[in-house]
Structures are given as structure tokens and as C-alpha cells.
Amino acid sequence: MIRMEDITFTYARRPIFEGFSWQVARGEVWAVLGPSGCGKSTLLLLLAGLVAPQTGKIEIQGEMLDRPRPQTSLVLQEYGLLPWATLRENVALGLRIRRFYGPDGRHAPQDLRLDANDIAMRTENWLRRLDIYGLADYRPSQVSGGQRQRAAIARALVLQPDLLLMDEPFAALDAPTREDLQALTLALCSEAGLTVVLVTHTLEEAAFVGQRILILDAPPNHVPHSLANPHTADAAYRRSAAYYAQVTKLRGRLEGA
Ligand code: ADP
Ligand code: MG
């Protein structure tokens, strides 16, 4: 699904990735873990095609990534909802844009366009899946942080992506809300067979969410240190000895790194 080959990425003079290679198979759920400033958000911007590496290449589904692709959805750290629009309008936003510009950002042939009714139905479906249908006519400032994050996730999933990139999506939420949304997001992604790259700075989140965990360190990052985490997303896992062992192992890896 994703192949990063020997990439180098530098902001001004500061190299963040140097000769870095990493692969993600289709349908895998990866957590990317590391301290603040290690390059987690930069990795997502690279995968989203919003910044380009100075050397090396990135391929997604066998195609060279040279601009943002329509099948990739990105959920940003601060939700990125339009404050003046209702949750319904926020969720429908991407579909509306596609209706005018086509799925590839270019003018779409007539048969690729969704009509207003298709957009309304798909939007309603995802509002319901994220359990915010009853709040559809509220604006983001009128609902809780968890509900805003649900709207941001609905907006990403309504576009039927094959790759979902999330930047610390649950960081601002209280623990029970965060745990609910982690589990719901994983269930929806697994149902749709999505490939997921989720950035987090918390060990516990990485250990619950990631089937595989990529550990980044103080930049520049050269080698992708990764860890298998096969029992994720099972509700009982969070209470299991295996989960605590994994969190402890990650703590050791981060502190020893
Ligand atoms: P993380 O998401 O892991 O906290 P980032 O990927 O945002 O880290 O940033 C990695 C490093 O690059 C940090 O030291 C940050 O200050 C620096 N950085 C991020 N964005 C820019 C930018 N636009 N220009 C210059 N430096 C940047
Ligand atoms: Mg970041």
C-alpha cells in the first residue's frame, strides 16, 4: 500500500528523515509513536502528499505520490471543522467539493458526480454511524470535543478512502471518550478494510490501536524501528496482561532509545 524508499526530508536546515524507508501493507493499522518534535506530523504530511521529500520516493498503491490523492483522508489534530457550519454541513463538505471538482480534483465526468440526494444520504449514514445524527444541526462550538471529533471522523470516512491518516486524533479527549472513540474508529476502519496510520504521543494509545507500531526518535530518523502488536482492537485486550506487557515494552523502547 505505502512504500517510502530512501527518503530525505529537511525543513530549512533541520533534517527530519534521512535515508528513511518504510512499508505499510494494505489493510494494516499502524500507530506512529514518538516524543513531541520527532517528526510524526511531518510523516503524515509526506504521506498525504502535502509536502514532498527532497530525495527518495513515496508510492501509494503502486503509484508515485506527487500530489494529494483523493482516496486518502486526513484527520487533523484540531479537528479542522468549519466553525460556522453545522455538523451535517461539515460532514458533507468533502462530498460537495467532489461534486463540483470530481474525485481527482479535476472536472468530473457527469456520471461521477453525486447528486444532492446521494450526498444527503451518505452524510446521514455517517452521522448515524458516528452517533451524532441527533446533533446534525448544531455547530461545532455547540457540541463536546468528543462529538466534534466524531464529526471529523465522519467527514473523513464519508469520502470512502482507502487510506486514513490521523494526527493525534484523540489527544484532547477525556479517557472514557477517548477509549470509546478508539474502539469505534478501529471497528469502522476494519469493516471498510482501510489502511490506517495514526499518530500518537501516548504509549497506551499506540498499544491499543496499532497492529504495528512505528517508533520515531529525535530527528533525523534513519531506520524505522517497529514492533508487532497482534492483539489490538479487541475490547478485552485493554485489560489483559499482554496489553500491560506491551505498554511496558514500549516504555522501555522509548526510554532506552
Ligand atoms: P511531531 O508531530 O512529532 O511533534 P513535527 O513533525 O511537527 O513533530 O515536527 C518535527 C520537527 O520539525 C520539530 O522540531 C518542528 O519544530 C520542526 N518543524 C515542523 N514544521 C516545521 C516547519 N514548517 N518549518 C520548520 N520546522 C518545522
Ligand atoms: Mg505533531
Main sheet properties: 6 strands, mixed
**Helix and strand succession?**
EEEHEEEHHHEHEHEEH
Structural class: alpha/beta
Mean pLDDT: 90
**Overall form:** globular
Radius of gyration: 18 Å
Small-molecule components bound? adenosine-5'-diphosphate, magnesium ion
- Tell me the number of helical segments per DSSP (H or I, 4 or more residues long): 7
Taken as a percent bin, the fraction of beta residues is 15-25%
Tell how many strands the DSSP assignment holds: 10
Strand order in the largest sheet: 6-7-8-3-9-10
Task: Kindly state the percentage of residues in helix.
Answer: 25-40%
Low-confidence stretches: none
Distance between the termini: 28 Å
